[in-house]
User: Which sequence fits this backbone?
């Protein structure tokens, strides 16, 4: 049985169109590399934050203390603006690098009369007050204790990987207990920070948040002070 010449030409045309469609019509659009990030507000002087990376808003009205929802940022270097919503006061941090190896969680905290933007290292971190060191006792769930003295911005790895732990804090050199978490589920990072603004008569009180974080997810939970 013969095939009509017009049908052959039609078959070739259809085949060529299919091949072009299969190769994407000349190539896929470039997608710049990006990563997921979070920001943790541990600064009691900023009870409500609007956050921008460059010209792009990524979160609004973030309370204290709280962690933003996940947001995606392209790799690059940014000016990060943190704006106190009620007063309009803005803290600007230039040269914040985002790439495959940069921290996934940024931490905003008080530093003397100013502010800093750091990262959440694994372990115990003292961000309580600019000139206060803390004596730290971290108990595992069978009573073993890891004692540590941490200066402001000091950190230490957790020596135990027990499921649960108890954190107790003292002003360095003092026997007086100022914080007791009770039994808590252990987290990647344990961050100590001021509970109240500097002008408050309660400014000497500490607060603690437990933070789990990796490249794809992050979650923070406040640890209560069983002392009240």
Assistant:
């Amino acid at each position: 049985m013969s095939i009509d010449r017009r049908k052959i030409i039609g078959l070739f045309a259809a085949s060529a169109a299919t091949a072009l469609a299969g190769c994407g019509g000349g190539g896929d659009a470039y997608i710049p590399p990006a990563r997921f990030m979070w920001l943790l507000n541990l600064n009691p002087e900023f009870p409500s934050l609007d956050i921008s990376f460059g010209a792009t808003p990524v979160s609004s009205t973030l309370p204290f203390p709280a962690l933003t929802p996940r947001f995606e940022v392209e790799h690059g270097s940014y000016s990060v603006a943190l704006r106190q919503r009620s007063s309009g006061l803005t803290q600007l941090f230039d040269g914040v690098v985002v790439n495959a190896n940069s921290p996934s969680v940024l931490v905003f905290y008080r530093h003397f009369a100013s502010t800093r933007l750091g990262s959440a290292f694994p372990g115990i971190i003292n961000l309580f007050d600019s000139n206060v060191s803390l004596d730290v006792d971290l108990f595992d769930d069978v009573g073993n204790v890891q004692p540590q003295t941490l200066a402001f911005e000091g950190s230490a790895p957790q020596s135990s990987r027990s499921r649960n732990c108890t954190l107790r804090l003292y002003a360095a050199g003092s026997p007086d207990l100022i914080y007791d978490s009770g039994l808590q589920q252990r987290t990647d990072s344990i961050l100590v920070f001021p509970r109240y603004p500097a002008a408050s008569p309660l400014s000497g009180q500490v607060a603690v948040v437990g933070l789990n974080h990796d490249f794809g997810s992050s979650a923070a939970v406040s640890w209560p002070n069983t002392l009240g």
